[in-house]
Design goal:
The complex is a heterodimer of chains A (113) and B (112).
Chain A (H helix, E strand, L loop, with lengths): L4 E3 L2 E4 L5 E6 L6 E7 L6 E7 L2 E4 L8 E4 L6 E5 L8 E8 L7 E2 L3 E5 L1
Parallel strand pairs in A: 2-11
Antiparallel strand pairs in A: 1-3, 3-8, 4-5, 4-9, 5-6, 7-8, 9-10, 9-11
Chain B lengths: L3 E4 L2 E5 L4 E7 L6 E6 L5 E7 L5 E4 L2 E6 L4 E6 L8 E10 L2 E6 L3 E6 L1
Parallel strand pairs in B: 2-11
Antiparallel strand pairs in B: 1-3, 3-8, 4-5, 4-9, 6-7, 7-8, 9-10, 9-11
Classes of the chains: A mainly beta (113), B mainly beta (112).
Chain lengths: 113, 112
């Protein structure tokens, strides 16, 4: 089966600009997650979707980050405006059911200068 | 708040040696995961541990779980260079949310 697809692979922006990342989960996977991985650290959960509804967004900095999952399939994560500390790899993961294993995408590496 | 601590954070070892990575977590959880990450790559699932006393082995890696102590170990037997990577443990948050809380990772270098 195809894996979790993410794009772009890399992105460099200036601070205060906006940026968006896209994720296409494995077909049929109802649960989708976005994680932020800062260099040298473990991934941190930003948001969890079940179909197109938000289950947990308690760690999402809502003043600048937003995410949506239209029609319960693809998802986009947006940052506006970006700060230097947002430089990280943004990982998308999906699972078939809520207690199944997770499959991670290759990630988008964001550099804010 | 769920916290996950790994140690050591950095480990350099020689091929053929054995070593153990430790993962402690702060609150009850019903499953623990081990992942491997190579530089510039995504996370590869190694093990999922579901119950107290669970032990899983794959090749030179063996993971175990003690839910009473809130401790998991990843044991490396007769290490080889190909096992060089960063290893993360992660615990499911529980309740209505299923996202994972990760440790900081153990950066493992295995030298010939």
């Amino acid at each position: 089966e195809a894996g979790v697809a993410q794009s772009p692979r890399y992105k460099i922006i200036e601070k205060r600009q906006s940026v968006a990342f896209w994720c296409n989960p494995i077909s049929g996977h109802a649960t989708l997650y976005w994680y932020q991985q800062i260099l040298g650290q473990g991934p941190k959960l930003l948001i969890q979707f079940q179909n197109n509804g938000v289950v947990d967004d308690s760690q999402l900095p809502k003043d600048r980050f937003s995410a949506e999952r239209l029609k319960g399939v693809d998802s986009t994560l947006k940052i506006q405006p970006a700060k230097l500390e947002d430089s990280a790899v943004y990982l998308c993961a999906s699972s078939l059911r809520r207690l199944d294993g997770y499959t991670f995408g290759s990630g988008t590496r964001l550099t804010v200068v | 708040e769920l916290k996950v601590e790994q140690n050591p954070l950095f480990l350099s070892m020689q091929e053929g040696k054995n070593y153990t990575i430790y993962c402690n977590y702060s609150t009850t959880s019903d499953r623990l995961y081990w992942y491997r990450q190579d530089p510039g790559k995504s996370l590869e699932s190694l093990f999922v541990l579901l119950s107290n006393g669970a032990v899983k082995q794959e090749g030179r890696l063996m993971a175990s779980l003690d839910t009473k102590a809130r401790l998991s170990t990843l044991h490396i037997t007769a290490a080889v260079h190909d096992l060089s990577a960063t290893y993360f443990c992660a615990v499911r948050s529980g309740g209505g949310a299923d996202g994972l809380t990760f440790g900081k990772g153990t950066h493992l270098i295995i030298q010939p």
